[in-house]
Amino acid sequence: MPTNLPAEARAKWLKYLEARTPEEKLTALQEFFSAIPKHKGTENLRAWVRRKISELKEELEEKKLRRSGSGISFFIEKEGAAQVIMLGMTQAGKSSLLRALTNAKPEVSDVPYTTKKPVPGMMRYEDIYFQVVESPALVEGSANGAIWWGTRVLGLARNADVIMLVIDLTSEPLRQAEVLVKELETAGICLKKPRGRVLVRRSKAIHGIKIVLCGKLLNCTVDDVRRLLEAGRMYGVEVKIYGEVTLEDVEKAIYETVTYKPCLIVLNKADSVSNKFAAEVASRIREKLLPDAEVVITSVKLGVGVNDIPRKIFKLADIVRVYTKEPNSPKPSPQPLILKRGSTVEDAVRKIREEFIKYFKYAKVWGPSAKYPGERVGLNHVLEDGDVIEIRTTVKGI
Ligand SMILES: Nc1nc2c(ncn2[C@@H]2O[C@H](COP(=O)(O)OP(=O)(O)OP(=O)(O)O)[C@@H](O)[C@H]2O)c(=O)[nH]1
Ligand SMILES: [Mg+2]
Fold this sequence. Notes:
globular; six-stranded mixed beta sheet; binds magnesium ion; five-stranded mixed beta sheet; alpha/beta; binds guanosine-5'-triphosphate; 33% helix; Methane Monooxygenase Hydroxylase, Chain G, domain 1; Rossmann fold
């Protein structure tokens, strides 16, 4: 929240923070929007408010549709280890790819715009599943209402964990990539890996403002970050800073102006172009658009490249699998806990059951993060993919 807002706008902002239902939030936000002065310094904030207003309108519209049981719902409940949203122009081969990767059976056809609503399917990777959702095709101008479903598809993308851009190599592939990246950018979704990361967590359990600096602040101090939060009356908030971060990055994270999503680019229909052309498209995308892009070249028709996708998604999802074991039991549970990379024993315990943390004594770890099998560790120990943990508590039987 820029500190230089007039008192009237600040009062309206507080009303928004106090609003509970989506209806109340929408009214409060609309009032707040009209009270923000228009100048360069409030650009980010106005963009955020505008987007939030349209998200709230869509949320209310969705609710109405679900209640009446009519119309097309774009709401897809998350399942599995992470949600991947497939985006692309029409005819890129999204439905064909979804059929190849998952149990879903969407219609494949050479009629443009065959898929008219989001279709979910489950994709297996070793012992876990990812949810992959095909979305109706995008066009240039989707973020600005060129098609009625454009902002809804982009809303799905905002909520997803990983984005998969499916591009047809036979039809101006670079242009498709450019349009898709631009539409996402307009919707506040950035695919370029930022230098740092700001994680914002809101919870009643947090007293006041908590700032955890795991990286470096480039142009400000921890006190500046605190003042920024105080100015927006943001309490019950934890802000964690990783990598290199500016005050503007913190502001963007707080107001969700821009959100970063890891992205896999699938260049499809490789059977219809030369290998050289496909490789050139991949390198042009990296040069011109996304320097660190993860790219896979596929032909769904011939079944080439498709098998590489689950592993790449696993890498991009940035998660680890941790297996829990009962004390004295020889075998860990077959189903792993799914945690964000960098998670600690504390995160694992809280995920199993929040109140376990009160009774925690120590944990024993086997696997990649353990110095030796069965190492005894505390709550701050960072877990790695494939670890097995045994949690010891002060109370018997839990
Ligand atoms: N040559 C070739 N054709 C493909 C490949 N993958 C899909 N197709 C064809 O491309 C056409 C469109 O495929 P879909 O999977 O329906 O494409 P979509 O992206 O879901 O399209 P919409 O839902 O209509 O936007 C179909 O005729 C497919 O058979 C491929 O790897 N190579
Ligand atoms: Mg389709």
